[in-house]
Amino acid sequence: MSEILIVGGGAAGMFAGICAAKKGCSVKLFEQNEKLGKKLFITGKGRCNFTNACTQEELLEHTVTNPKFLYSAYHGCSSWDMIAFFEELGVPTKVERGNRAFPASDHSSDIIRALERELKRLGVQVFLNTRVEKLDIDGGAVRGIFLETGKRIPGDKVIVATGGLSYPSTGSTGDGLRFAREAGLTVTDCYPSLVPFNTEEEYLRRLQGLSLKNVTLTVEREGECLYREFGEMLFTHFGISGPLVLTASAHLAPLAARERLKAYVDLKPALTREQLDEKLLRLFEEGHKKQFKNVVAGMFPAKLLPVMVELSGISGEKPSHGVSREERRRFVELIKALPMTVTGLRGYKEAIITKGGVAVSEISPKTMEARKIQGLCFIGEVLDLDAVTGGFNLQIAWSTAAACASAI
């Protein structure tokens, strides 16, 4: 009977343990926290968006880094397989906007408890409050692990499922990346991802708490468009956040970490500049005796109005009939491209995932085994794989865990 050692009791580690035990292996799972699934507990704001109910092609499309590596893993374990898996474990599920799959209860604890029950049913030995210090590697093969206490645990295969660097309070402290380096594997540069942006402009601080829906965010570098997407965003005390911004960070994290970037928000993407100009003309004609700030008040949320008036350079008290053609043109441009300067990323404490990790060129895509070290596998976020929000990153965890276990 193969002796399988799993380091890390998050989504990937627990699922790998279940899959390996189903194959008849003896499985030991080591978790340094006092409980399993600590990061899984806070996923999806505590609701646990555990996958995205979409096709394999769509999973690949939404994977930002190294999607081709996941082709085999996604084929072997799809999002529909995971929905069926949890349903069979007695967790009713539901699919919401954007194909996001959740437990019907909206409680991440239901997902974690189901995984814990299955681990127990299958006889997986779980060691909590147990930190793995290093791997035991000899002669090009892994022989086991050493605990922090110095105790050696022998094993035929070691599966590293320690996560990345995001949310360090949940135990993601980069141990798996260190194990990889010590084993002679390449670890790519790491960055916080699915994370808010810091911005420079003072006026954005005054918009703190304001959420904008149905807007288009564009991020540029020296006039070159790096990212453009339609959706929802949020202003904060430090800059900008929300779905649009988090997705932008997944694509731009390495650049945003070292360069200042320009961002623009199109507040009225459904209207062309010409249509917007015509709309303003009508408003000015209908309220030609009214002050400029009152005529345009209905176009923006209350919190945004004073900022827009200030940035327009037009006095709020100016009668609308006195607004010149050039002033109107500049105001249209402001509405179509509210400017801001991205000065950097927020840190790992706020990042949903880590971008970067163990180089997949040194990992077998069918088995998740390191090409250089026999029996040593890496799964989940510790690998250089990441996707946008919507359950895709957890699907990476499930799929890589299943691929690893199926090859045992």
Automatic annotation (TrEMBL):
Cofactor(s) essential for the protein: FAD
Residue ranges constituting the RsdA/BaiN/AoA(So)-like Rossmann fold-like domain according to the UniProt record: 3-406
Family matches, as InterPro entries: BaiN-like, BaiN-like_dom_sf, FAD/NAD-bd_sf, RsdA/BaiN/AoA(So)-like_dom, RsdA/BaiN/AoA(So)_Rossmann
Keyword entries, A-Z: FAD, Flavoprotein
Presence of keyword Flavoprotein: yes
Domain RsdA/BaiN/AoA(So)-like insert: 191-353
Entry keyword annotation includes RNA-binding: no
NCBIfam families the UniProt entry points to: aminoacetone oxidase family FAD-binding enzyme
Name the UniProt record assigns to this protein: NAD(P)/FAD-dependent oxidoreductase
Organism: Candidatus Egerieimonas intestinavium
